[in-house]
Amino acid sequence: MEQLSSNRSHGGMQGVYRHASAATGTDMTFSIFVPDHAPGTKLPVLWYLSGLTCTHANVTEKGEYRQACAEHGVILVAPDTSPRGEGVPDDEAYDFGQGAGFYVDATEAPWATHFSMRSYIEQELPALIGAEFSADMDRQGITGHSMGGHGALTIGLRNPGRFRSVSAFSPIVAPGQVPWGQKALTGYLGEDRAAWREYDAVALIEDGARVPELLVDTGTADQFLEVQLKPELLDGACRNAGIALTQRLQPGYDHSYYFVSTFLGDHVAWHAERLKA
Ligand SMILES: N[C@@H](CCC(=O)N[C@@H](CSC=O)C(=O)NCC(=O)O)C(=O)O
């Protein structure tokens, strides 16, 4: 693992690291904020999964989370959204290929060779974080934005024993029912829609996945609200399943990091409350 940068901020250290990933077969870069802590103590971890076109840098530079993480003693890890580099296939569209890994393990050529973001986020990166940082891997929460909100919901729903808390910002709640998701899941997994269901939060809930509660914030002025996000589908699924969903429609906010940064501190506090016990 190679440290690319390290900066003191809000009484902690903001680092950026690169490592060779066996899951993706490429180098991967992530950022991690570690609040100051007593020697020998371990801090809970909040994962933040980013959206289409993002790297680790978008939330690191625009997310404004460090004050809340320092106050609540929470580590925040922000991975990249796909493998990148020479030999990694790409697509000219912004919503497929590099920067758009959709947190799946691809099964279709040519994507299957490198696009294993599910394995990377669920297995490889947590092992690295647990080994290299003062992270208490028994106390993990997960959140994310848009495509990363989809990642947070689906990874959280598939791994309720690992994540004590799950939240999302403007998530794609039912990729199997919207254009962004249908394009990505067809490309990465093929035409068989049965294979999509473990990558679709609403389908996972319909198929029996359960977490005790979810927190979701979405802006009413989000330009993707009606076509790509469809928060009402998550309302229905959670109501039928008895999952306590707090879904807040924030008046006037759009899809940007001006929105995410306004509420990310709230989400850090919400996760901290559940991770402290
Ligand atoms: N470029 C696209 C829109 C891309 C976009 O809005 N990306 C969002 C996430 S969308 C869902 O995953 C994002 O986080 N962008 C990075 C940022 O720093 O804002 C278009 O032109 O429509």
From TrEMBL:
UniProt entry tagged with the keyword Hydrolase: yes
Organism: Sphingomonas kyeonggiensis
Catalytic activity field: S-formylglutathione + H2O = formate + glutathione + H(+)
GO terms under cellular component: cytosol
Swiss-Prot/TrEMBL keywords: Hydrolase, Serine esterase
Protein name (Swiss-Prot/TrEMBL): S-formylglutathione hydrolase
InterPro entries cross-referenced by the UniProt entry: AB_hydrolase_fold, Esterase-like, S-formylglutathione_hydrol
NCBIfam families, per the entry: fghA_ester_D (TIGR02821)
Known function: Serine hydrolase involved in the detoxification of formaldehyde.
Gene3D superfamilies hit by this protein: alpha/beta hydrolase
Superkingdom classification of source: Bacteria
PANTHER family in UniProt: S-FORMYLGLUTATHIONE HYDROLASE
Active-site positions on this chain: 146, 222, 255
Database matches in Pfam families: Esterase
Family: Belongs to the esterase D family.
